[in-house]
Inverse folding.
């Protein structure tokens, strides 16, 4: 499939399988949408970014962007749940897994049979990701993991959790990623109540002497103390995935605003009041188009293997902030109607707030951009 075909397949799935009343019910009940995740397998899109020899489509992570965008137009949380598996299952195993790990996991991931999560953030290590303190200690032929993680998407419903641990004193060269089975004794995940992205099963995770073997190191034993490199190799893909999710929410917010304003002002003449509304919507549409072009240009650079840390950071910051602005502006234009819980706009606003934080806050993206422009702080 090319990207146009991928987009069409994802759009058709969203329109047929996710009516707006179902999307609202997922948000209200805040329960992991297992049935929708399973149904997504019928699209054949799970293996977009998995090599053909493992049963995938042979694409790259950027080829999944239309999926995230289209699903986010109906149910943003589903887009991120699927993206979570594609990034931290398909991508991280495909790029950094050992030969045995690729043979073991990728065919099952391509079929949609496995759920993966990624555990990096800790109560005292968010934006400063290298400050993790969860430890893995080697003794008697195995590693014992002890510590806690926070805000881990899908951690309570996953089969495996790629967990970053401290295995040596070095800040960056002392981090190791383990592929931890979620049924391991001592592993536990407690769902958190959040403002948005209801149904994501975002958890606080605890490791109480969880035992893993050297072959569970991401990349096998050669992957010892290479966890930071494994993580940073995915950052461009993660930023673009979040950018695509934001584009979907921005488009959904714009569509909802246009439809509602047409209804709200259907008896109005094109007077000064209505013209101000039209101008506001025109600005929203223009900003969204600028965000889309920035994001897909950055994706094109990634596809060309061009160094583009600045561009992906720009895309992540601008798309998420733009989508937030559009959702909020839509609510303002609709007045009390936009603030009702029956309105999709309030749900989109609550969801998009997460995107401005996850994957590096907007402030962190600005720091990265500034450094790429040669503006170093002392």
């Amino acid at each position: 499939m090319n990207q146009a075909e991928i987009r069409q397949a994802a759009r058709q799935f969203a329109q047929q399988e996710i009516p707006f009343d179902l999307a609202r019910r997922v948000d209200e009940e805040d329960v992991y949408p297992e049935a929708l995740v399973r149904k997504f397998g019928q699209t054949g899109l799970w293996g977009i970014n998995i090599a053909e020899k493992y049963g995938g489509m042979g694409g790259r992570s950027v080829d999944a962007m239309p999926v995230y965008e289209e699903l986010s137009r109906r149910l943003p949380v589903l887009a991120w749940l699927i993206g979570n598996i594609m990034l931290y299952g398909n991508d991280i195993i495909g790029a950094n897994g050992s030969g045995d790990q690729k043979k073991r996991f990728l065919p099952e991931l391509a079929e949609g049979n496995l759920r993966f999560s990624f555990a990096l953030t800790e109560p005292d290590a968010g934006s400063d990701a290298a400050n993790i303190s969860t430890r893995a200690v080697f003794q008697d032929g195995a590693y014992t993991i002890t510590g806690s993680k926070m805000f881990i998407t899908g951690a309570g419903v996953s089969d495996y959790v790629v967990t970053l641990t401290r295995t040596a004193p070095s800040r960056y060269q002392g981090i190791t990623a383990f592929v931890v089975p979620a049924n391991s004794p001592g592993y536990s995940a407690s769902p958190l109540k959040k403002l948005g992205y209801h149904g994501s099963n975002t958890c606080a995770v605890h490791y109480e002497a969880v035992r893993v073997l050297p072959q569970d190191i991401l990349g096998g034993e050669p992957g010892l103390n290479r966890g930071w490199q494994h993580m940073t190799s995915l950052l461009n893909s993660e930023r673009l995935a979040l950018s695509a999710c934001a584009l979907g929410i921005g488009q959904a917010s714009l569509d909802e605003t246009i439809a509602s304003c047409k209804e709200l002002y259907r008896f109005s003449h094109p007077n000064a009041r209505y013209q101000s509304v039209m101008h506001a919507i025109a600005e929203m549409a223009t900003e969204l188009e600028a965000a889309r072009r920035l994001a897909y240009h950055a994706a094109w650079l990634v596809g060309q293997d061009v160094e583009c840390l600045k561009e992906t950071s720009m895309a992540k910051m601008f798309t998420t902030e733009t989508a937030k602005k559009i959702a909020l502006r839509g609510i303002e234009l609709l007045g009390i109607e936009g603030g009702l819980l029956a309105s999709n706009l309030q749900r989109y606003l609550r969801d998009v707030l997460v995107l401005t934080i996850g994957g590096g806050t907007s402030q962190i993206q600005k720091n990265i951009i500034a450094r790429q422009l040669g503006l170093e702080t002392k």
